[in-house]
Amino acid sequence: MVDWASKSYEELNALYWNQIAPERREEGHDPKNDIPSYEWLNNHGYSGIHRALKRDHDTTTKEFFDELLDPKEEFDWAGDHHETQQWLEKFLTSLEERKKRADSTIQSKRGRLSRILRTHVEVNNSGDLIGSVRSRGEGKDGFQQLLKVGDELDETLESTQSKFNHIYDLIEFYEFLLRRKIAAYNPGKWIKDEFDWDCSGTYNKSSPCLSKEQVKKIWDKTRDLEEQLIVICYVGLGLRTDEPASLTRENFDLQEEEEGCPRIDFDERKNYAGTVPVLVGKNQIAQRLREVQSNVNKSDCLFPSSYSDNEALSGAAMRDRFKDICRRADVKVDGETPTPRHARRTWYSLYTESLDELYGRLEFPADDQSSKTIEVVRDSYLNEDIEFQHHRSCMKPVLREIMPGVNEYGSDISFPSTDEGGQATITNFG
CATH fold of 212-428, please? Predict the structure, then answer.
């Protein structure tokens, strides 16, 4: 049995290569390129890695594997600036051949640098990381471009450890260019000084989130069903910034079973649970799906774009709309307008509170079984179904308290589904 609580970040990295990777290889997977799914990890006895990464290292399973492996970008750098791509490869080769860095380290750095380059292309429409550093006179433009990259990483990456790892690799890359007289300065150091990214790798319980009172204010300032759904998605369901934009009616199962719960089924959500329970907001979602079904000439997305019939709102647009509601409510976190990231942290804070209550109950079984730690009892005897049932019972009333009337939208609520012929139908779930 793996004692997850005792593992450092690097030890978890080594555990993958020494224990998980051989199992993957035996089953016909490529452990260097095929990221294990959430279900595979759970089915093979590694479910504890999800909790350990989040609890002890403020990192999600996806971010961990994105840094460890990057199959999509390993040999396909973003953009079309060949000089940048060549120097990135030279940098990694130097680490491997001269500094004798482990293959796992090279893979992790490749993944992070790939994300940086990909982000640079997205926010600056350029894959050139070299041109602006050839002389200090061009430093201003280069700094502004990398600052945009830093802003995007700060928004999209959830853990301070991951953010620091990305910027550290960028700094190391530019130091490599400095030694070869390709760069005249290292803009990565400037970017690091712009952000308060803790490099300790430990979970930061003081990470800013919305208070319950602030959520109430935000909820009270929603003007229509769409704005309610935006708050529900981020605070009530804990979705990431761009995830609501991808949802269509095919992703929802709002039928409640005796032991189940309405849910969202994601088509692709590697290294995260593919299913998200809908603890609150089912009536709002159902009402929206009815509206989507009635607009036969529009997209079937939960948040269709007003500019295109077949497209959804972008993640950036969703972020802007959430921030607009926060401004209307006059809510700020650390002097800044909150983003969906703060809302998701609120969801995690409430989730952690519910788990703390559950773990408190495990102290007695731990004493009875003479177990050294609560984690051993938890990982041995607490299955995911029990944990989820407790999580559901604890969180639902809290979410309904901070979003009054969250499940009281409309009457005779029903939601659309599809029959075997693909035709839309209406099913009551009351």
Answer: hpI Integrase; Chain A (1.10.443)
Among residues 131, 43, 108, 154, the alpha carbon closest in space to that of 383 is found at 43
CA 281 and chain centroid, separation = 21
Which pTM does this prediction carry? 0.56
State the pairing for strand pair 414-418/275-277. unpaired
pLDDT tens for residues 96-151?
888 888 776 787 888 889 989 999 998 899 999 998 888 776 556 778 888 889 88
**Which amino acid is present at 344?**
R
268: exposed, middle or buried (C-beta count within 10 Å: 0-12, 13-18, 19+)? exposed
* Sign of torsion over alpha carbons 357, 361, 362, 363: positive
Instruction: Measure the CA–CA gap between 130 and 120, rounded to whole angstroms.
Output: 12
Residue 171 main-chain phi, psi, to 5 deg: -60, -45
Spatial separation of the C-alpha atoms in residues 316 and 202, rounded to whole Å: 29
Q: Contact at 8 Å (CB) between 366 and 377?
A: yes
Domain ranges, ordered by start, for the chain: 1-204, 212-428
Phi, psi of 198 (to 5 degrees): -75, 130
Q: Tokens in use for 15?
A: 């555990």
Give one DSSP letter per residue of 192-228, joined into a string.
HHHS----S-S--TT-----HHHHHHHHHT--SHHHH
Burial string for 355-365 (b: 16+ CB within 10 Å, else e) reads beebbeebeee
H-only helix segments in 125-200 = 139-156, 160-179, 187-194
